[in-house]
TrEMBL record:
Coiled coil: none annotated. One of its GO terms (cellular component) is nucleolus. Belongs to the SSRP1 family. Residues 460-552, 590-704 are annotated as: Disordered. Component of the FACT complex, a general chromatin factor that acts to reorganize nucleosomes. The FACT complex is involved in multiple processes that require DNA as a template such as mRNA elongation, DNA replication and DNA repair. During transcription elongation the FACT complex acts as a histone chaperone that both destabilizes and restores nucleosomal structure. SUPFAM superfamilies: HMG-box, PH domain-like. Residues 546-614 bind DNA. It comes from Gambusia affinis. This is FACT complex subunit SSRP1. Residues 485-496, 504-513 have a biased composition (Acidic residues). InterPro entries: HMG_box_dom (IPR009071), HMG_box_dom_sf (IPR036910), PH-like_dom_sf (IPR011993), RTT106/SPT16-like_middle_dom (IPR013719), RTT106/SSRP1_HistChap/FACT (IPR050454), SSRP1-like_PH1 (IPR048993), SSRP1/POB3 (IPR000969), SSRP1/POB3_N (IPR035417). Residues 590-615, 633-662 have a biased composition (Basic and acidic residues).
Amino acid sequence: MGDMLEFNDIYQEVKGSWNDGRLRFSKQNVVYKSNKTGKVDSIPAGELNQAQWRRVCLGHGIKLGTSTGHIYKYDGFRDTDFEKLSEFFKLNYKMELSEKDMSVKGWNWGTAKFSGPLLSFDINDHTAFEIPLSNVSQCATGKNEVTLEFHQNDDTEVSLMEVRFYVPPNQTDERQDPVEAFAQNVLTKADVIQATGDAVCIFKELQCLTPRGRYDIRIYPTFLHLHGKTFDYKIPYTTVLRLFLLPHKDQRQMFFVISLDPPIKQGQTRYHFLILLFSKEEDINLTLNMSEEDVEKRFEGKLSKNMSGSLYEMVSRVMKALVNRKITVPGNFQGHSGAQCITCSYKASSGLLYPLERGFIYVHKPPVHLRFEEISCVNFARGTTTTRSFDFEIETKQGNQYTFSSIEREEYGKLFDFVNAKKLNIKNRGFKEGMKGNINEYSDSDEDQHDAYLERMKAEGKIREEGNDSDDSDGSGSDESFNPGEEDEEIAEEYDSNASASDSSDEGDDSEDESAKKKVKKAKVVKEKKERKPRKEKKQKDKAGPKRPMSAYMLWLNSSRERIKSENPGISITEISKKAGEMWRQLNKDEKEEWETKAGEAKRQYDKLKKEYKESGGGPTSSPRKEKRKSGGKKDEKRKSSSGEKEKERGGNDSFKSREFIETSDDSSSDSDHKSKSKKKRKKKESEEEEEEEAVSTPASSEE
């Protein structure tokens, strides 16, 4: 058993939707990373106090409890994973992974138990279902009923809206109402936002880009309250994924971006990002509505009771302390103008694209954040409207495509360098096979090899110049990849300073002669037909000869096949070979040497047997087909020679063509053909007349 266990395609339920990710168990902690959001849950090994193995909808699942009261549930395990996990938990966490059966009776009466952040509904000591109380948005009570309403998730096709519990009256204790006691247990752990108490601090009239307007931001200990003229939003700090502080291109303003999951809603509109715009020159003196002791105890020196400075610094500092997340800023990227962003357009709206250390973020309409780990490939494409710009396309592993258009051509080299340094897959790299070994991923942007299609475009340009003489050959498609060098050539051709209308008008008739020459067709070169080479005969396998020896890997595979099957029950043939390949690569030199010596012995034995077999007269014989072909070939040669002799006997000039005849043009050749035909007819006529005269003269001579 190793020090670490890793599992892919493990699912975590988030408000009714399944999010896949990767789960890793190590001696120090348990880490789960979501593929969708990139959010990481880390559970220290020392805090684990409960581990259950359960049969769930996606196969098997594991439920982990911590000493701090948090519950984590992960599904998607196989039945065979139980033994590995159980042994790992005993060895590293000193605790047992217990098996827990779920109730599948379908009864709707049972016992409600509150255990930490979960409400479990049990039937005969077996759990029927569990409700995370953090998903509860509202709790209402009736005479003998408690109604729970839930936060909605836009990613789910079907959402659970509410659940009603009937609570029977308590006959023994009349002083305590069981309905109120049930509701209080729910509200203590529920995610019900109630603006009770005073705000820690208030920021007045801040400019907000999404949602658009000016809002007062009231900072509470557990949530953020946006109060505007039309709408109010309450944002729990638990929904904040990331914080970004981005400088504007004009160097006078700053963006503060808050990434949210789930998003805030206004009707059918969803806001996944909260974007605030600040002026760098605006300052503020801030006093927190807390005592100095409470500030020191709560924030551990991150904040002080009285603070002063730029407005954007104060807002970002307070948010960082309350949300307890790092603030992401642009890295080392610098564009052509020296700014840390690139001006571009996305979905017909102009904005700024920021290349970060671990992704890209576009502000502001609509905001887009793309992490490197979810990017499949990027593409540099030619701009559709003008030759002075290009498009930057990003394709994600989920199949979504984001096109950032109208980027200035001067930004191409810097952006290409950045993408290359981050080792992202470039779709239209277009290097030749011979150049691949010499590519430097960190090369300077001024070098020619940065241009994705430079070599290919040059070759295509030469072909167009040679093949097409008309003006139509100058047009090029908008879907071709971006190439700054080629655009310079096109622009030079369009606006050639040497070309003028007067030159063409002065030439007069000469230009007409040149155009007439262009119309003359090029003489076609007739290539002599090469004689076809005889097809090679396939080597026939000699069944009587000794069999070829197996390689070291095949000898090892034959001996290990049954062991692989027993260790992986139900494994397919293809999976066996795949698994065997991995195992063979992991073998050390000493283990492989044993099988290589066996293979060497088998090879020597084979060579010996083959030599003896050849000496005894064995070996592949020539096939009857070959002999037939040989005999057939001789007959053809005889036919050819006989036909040649006959032609010689006939003689005549009909088949003979002189050198002058071959060199004549197409028109003269047609006339000569016509003349030769008439000549032949005349000769034929004369020969027929002579024969008739001879026939008439012979009987007369015999009578005499």
